[in-house]
Amino acid sequence: MQRAVVQGSKRGLAALAGVTAASGMGLVYALENSVSASGDNVHPYALPWAHSGPFSSFDIASVRRGYEVYKQVCAACHSMKFLHYRHFVDTIMTEEEAKAEAADALINDVDDKGASIQRPGMLTDKLPNPYPNKKAAAAANNGAAPPDLSLMALARHGGDDYVFSLLTGYLEAPAGVKVDDGKAYNPYFPGGIISMPQQLFDEGIEYKDGTPATMSQQAKDVSAFMHWAAEPFHDTRKKWALKIAALIPFVAVVLIYGKRHIWSFTKSQKFLFKTVKGREPPKAQ
Amino acid sequence: MKINNSLLNFVNGMLVTLPSSKTLTLSWNFGSMLGMVLIFQILTGTFLAFYYTPDSLMAFSTVQYIMYEVNFGWVFRIFHFNGASLFFIFLYLHIFKGLFFMSYRLKKVWMSGLTIYLLVMMEAFMGYVLVWAQMSFWAAVVITSLLSVIPIWGPTIVTWIWSGFGVTGATLKFFFVLHFLLPWAILVIVLGHLIFLHSTGSTSSLYCHGDYDKVCFSPEYLGKDAYNIVIWLLFIVLSLIYPFNLGDAEMFIEADPMMSPVHIVPEWYFLFAYAILRAIPNKVLGVIALLMSIVTFYFFALVNNYTSCLTKLNKFLVFMFIISSTILSWLGQCTVEDPFTILSPLFSFIYFGLAYLMLFIFMSSKLLFK
């Protein structure tokens, strides 16, 4: 009778705990959705990038095309101050190609007499900044300085998906939304009004490798390039991760065996209770 | 065998022949794992310090210099950044394990442990600022401003830390020096923590009066501690695959005193404290509550109660405490709007209620067995 009551109450308690936990989970899920729904911009769709997987590498052909987009479209306003032409060598270009790209650029410099000059670039130069300083950049762009693109792929929530969506997300402003001259409406940008008008158009540039340069193709390629620029070590780190991951099972086996070997005596201990002559328990009287 | 050297005897008694219960599970590995991570952080941090410049115009650029130009600099930064998260993961597991097994019965260990926790929080915060990104700068502004609530000396202390009238490059130098020096102090206190612990040995779930049925610490528990290497290798793999998942995108935007981010949130390991701070719409009371969220646990060491453990009740309360802390952490990263402005004070109240309930039970349970 007593045991039955205890079992019954235990079952009831377990059921109550289960219901409470489920309710808690439901509440958290609902609230988390409301958090995601907050904010004043559209959330970018998750896209299947070539480099998204835990052990996936960059699509280098796409990165190369992305550099072409950057050079012909983005470089007019955006700098990439942490990137040098030498970073391209043996990663996305050969040394000759990188040198040729550098030579194409005009680099601000000072000559032997201290006069300002512009010279062709070389491998050790940074990708040039089109403006001398941030204020000049802002003045030339309706008060909004174009941000440096070196780390842009990592510097925005949503990363590559956000960049792609932003570049392809321009559309006519809805009724009631006031868009000033020189600005554009883009639902992916926080606030909706962005100072960068649409930059990518079908066949806006021509790819060297013959790929059709549609707007989405250009957006994909330049997004991949920007991620590569922010994480040049990306492929290396995944390669290393794979090597170390392959090592873990063997290390685990050795450590587990070693520990169990050390503990074998303790774990296999037996306790024997026996009577010692002269210390027998007293006989019942 | 006996050795004549007293220092060797001292070390031997703590690491080799220390009588230890047979029932210490992998939960007891958390402490040694933390020791490993601390050494790892000191090593990686020292190497990063070679190339870092604590100047407001150059700090962010030198961080990127480490990432782009220094041979394998990116590896050290990734490990150092994620190592901090790994440290806090095991630190919280270690604390919860301490609550489950009522480790506050070992007073000196508990007090030194809480001190280490506070110092590590300061260390992590200062490291966060050194990146000199948007979140770093504004976190520094917010957190250092909280010190102004200290009576009489508050504004002076804030001005001293800022080394000026706002967060500037001088503040960065201040934090860099402290960020580099503090780990060595933490290391010393950790050694003290270890000595206090190994003087008495760990608490365990199996009561054993006397040392007649125990094993030596070495080689049994050294072999068990070696399991940490597997966890460490897993950490390396995860760091390399997801290097920045635990960070914010704002970490890659250089600090701009003219523009603040839309949302300012600390790293994940501070979110529960941040939620408690925001739950109270008064600066002074908020700071006091923030401090008390940790200082409360010092009071546990003031109670003399070594044997009266209400195990099941304690386990229930600790689980509730873990759940409320987790929910507070989640609330800390939510925006300030309904219903989060209601839930924050509610769960802050639950957090403190549970902590003081545990303390009360710890004080009272002795009376049940008198």
Automatic annotation (TrEMBL), chain A:
GO CC annotation: mitochondrial inner membrane; respiratory chain complex III
Q: What SUPFAM superfamilies does the record point to?
A: Cytochrome c, Cytochrome c1 subunit of cytochrome bc1 complex (Ubiquinol-cytochrome c reductase), transmembrane anchor
Q: Which GO terms describe its biological process?
A: determination of adult lifespan; mitochondrial electron transport, ubiquinol to cytochrome c; proton motive force-driven mitochondrial ATP synthesis
Chain sites annotated for binding heme c: C74, C77, H78, M196
This protein's gene is called cyc-1
> Has UniProt tagged this entry with the keyword Mitochondrion?
yes
What Pfam families does the record point to? Cytochrom_C1
Database matches in InterPro entries: Cyt_c-like_dom, Cyt_c-like_dom_sf, Cyt_c1, Cyt_c1_TM_anchor_C
The cofactor note reads:
Binds 1 heme c group covalently per subunit.
Q: Where in the cell is it found?
A: Mitochondrion inner membrane
Give the family, as the similarity comment puts it: Belongs to the cytochrome c family.
One annotated GO molecular function is: heme binding
Cofactors needed by this protein, per the record, are: heme c
Instruction: Show where the Cytochrome c domain sits.
Output: 61-230
Q: Which UniProt keywords apply?
A: Electron transport, Heme, Iron, Membrane, Metal-binding, Mitochondrion, Mitochondrion inner membrane, Respiratory chain, Transmembrane, Transmembrane helix, Transport
Name-wise, this protein is Cytochrome c domain-containing protein
